[in-house]
Amino acid sequence: MGNGCVISQAAASMLCQQVDGMSLEKARLLTPKDMLDLLGCQISPLRQQCALLGLEALRALLPQESD
């Protein structure tokens, strides 16, 4: 298990479940709004960055689209 606040860990876990079996193309289209909607609860603006860390990490790991 990694380090981080409860929100970042929960959000990353939920994101992993969401993208399991998802195509790379569809995963690339995930937005911050999608991530916040996935959490299903209100996150204060100050903590939204925590909730979006997993999505940022996923985007960094996904291969770029080829032209």
Automatic annotation (TrEMBL):
GO terms for molecular function: iron ion binding; iron-sulfur cluster binding. GO terms for biological process: iron-sulfur cluster assembly. Pfam families: NifU_N. It comes from the Bacteria. This is Iron-sulfur cluster assembly scaffold protein. InterPro entries: NIF_FeS_clus_asmbl_NifU_N (IPR002871). Residues 2-60 form the NIF system FeS cluster assembly NifU N-terminal domain. Coiled coil: none annotated.
